[in-house]
Specification:
single chain, 192 residues, alpha+beta
């Protein structure tokens, strides 16, 4: 058995639909996301089942999609993954709403500028909105880029200035995987 399959098997022993799966993607952009938020993680998706198999609903470049769990885990740097669950659980009715929300966002384009107020998606916005639809609560923290960078002095401002073509849109609102990972209403159930 390969490492990804072993990790996937371990994850599925703990997994429930609606859980959030956090990973670090080993690419330059995602390393900057992790560094800029003071986190090890740079990507998040939502666990769902289809036809008895596990998948991760995610907003990834270029569009929102449903990815087999093994393929999601294979992108995790060093196989690191954390699974967090809403502390009050998700009812069958809420799960149905969550899955409808996933379906309603499938195919939406990825927003490389991480703008929470745009119709396009990015991973943490997608995960937060899907859970909000199901649970009727807001998880994570929506904040401006100015707030995010101010509280994370280790962020590479030079990179972000280049990323935004010379001008960081300081008042742009965003939400990060780290803010979901640290939300006290999401409890860790697995960490590898």
């Amino acid at each position: 058995m390969n490492k990804t399959h072993l990790i996937s098997t371990a994850v599925t022993e703990h997994l429930k639909e609606g859980d959030l799966l956090f990973i670090a993607i080993d690419s330059f952009l995602y390393r900057q996301v992790a560094q800029g938020t003071g986190s090890w993680c740079s990507h998040v998706g939502v666990a769902i089942q289809q036809h008895g198999r596990w998948y991760v609903a995610e907003s990834a470049i270029p569009k929102v999609r449903i990815t087999p769990l093994d393929k999601f885990i294979a992108r995790a740097k060093s196989g690191r993954i954390a699974v967090h669950r809403f502390n009050k659980g998700i009812s069958d009715t809420q799960l149905s709403v969550l899955k409808q929300a996933v379906q309603s966002h499938l195919g939406k384009w990825y927003h490389l500028g991480f703008n929470y107020d745009d119709k396009r998606m990015f991973c943490s916005k997608f995960a937060a909105l899907v859970l909000e639809s199901a649970l009727d609560i807001k998880l994570g923290e929506v904040e401006t880029l100015e707030q995010l960078i101010t509280k994370n002095p280790q962020a590479n401002v030079g990179f972000w200035r280049c990323w935004y073509l010379g001008f960081i849109p300081w008042k742009r609102r965003t939400i990060t995987p780290e803010s979901l990972l640290k939300d006290p209403r999401l409890l860790p159930v697995f960490n590898h």
